[in-house]
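Batch job 17 of 40 flagged for manual review because the log was empty.
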Amino acid sequence: MKQTEKQGQSQPPTEKLAGSILVAEDSPIYRRLIETHLKEWGFDYLCVKDGREAWKLLMKGDAPRLALLDWMLPEIDGIDLCRRLRERSGEAPYTYTILLTSKNRKADMLEAMDAGVDDFLAKPFDPLELKARILVGKRIVELQQKLVSANKALHLAASYDFLTGAWNRGEILAFTQRELARARRDVTPVGIVLVDVDHFKKVNDEFGHESGDVVLKEITKRLSACLREYDGVGRYGGEEFLLVIPGCDLPTTVRRANQIRKSISSRPIQTLLGEMTVTVSMGAIGAESSINLELLLRNADAALYRAKHNGRNRVEHSVASAAAASGS
């Protein structure tokens, strides 16, 4: 009884560790040894016997992000696997590598590090040292994943309007610049439409700002639903939106603007205080390839002003041209 208790005290509960690890080892003895340890420590793992099979697994979208690689592998050795991983596009998820080898010279370690290896463990290795190296690798991979997620969140915050989910002013203007440059290169038209929600101040005053937010979100949905994948929509400011419709001349742009306008006014919008019918006014522009962005938006704004002045819930149009700007 005492002996059993002593044995139990000498073996504390094993912490279960999540995460998938790729093991590439051609030695059956070491492969079985590593598998035994990983299973005991609670890791998920995949084992392969040669470098070519390891490379196929590493190229998958759901590949393990931590790899234990033997230096001397059939087909593709561990060093070459590391080199291939580091030569991939910077957009690929990072794979943390631990190289297992019987080589222990400083020159060998330097060669491994030059190839992009993250850590180096000489055989025969102490099991606890292997576990410590894996824990360090897991922590680095997790931190890298958090950093990628944070960068994506920052990009979203910098590019999209927080309320409507449409591009913000800076992003839609950058998209417009790119499409104008493409139009100049390909000698193709670009349709531009400024959209303004009619009587939006009245919506906020009578129904409250929460209802106003609902209206802006729903209008964004309806605008997006009417556009193609390669068109652009962004919140230009307040209750104004900017639509960019590549490849459309002025008549086509006006026709599409009227279709969009009708899709917004044809169905009431459900708000917290009931349904309301909302209309929009639009200023449509057919941009010449030589036009600059500032002049383009000035002409679009003038067309939008005419739409508001002429009774709202309508589309007015203009041709943005350098000649018009100069008054000739």
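Reviewer: the log was empty due to a logging misconfiguration, but the result itself is present. The chain is about 50% helix and 20% strand. Unflagging and moving on to job 18.
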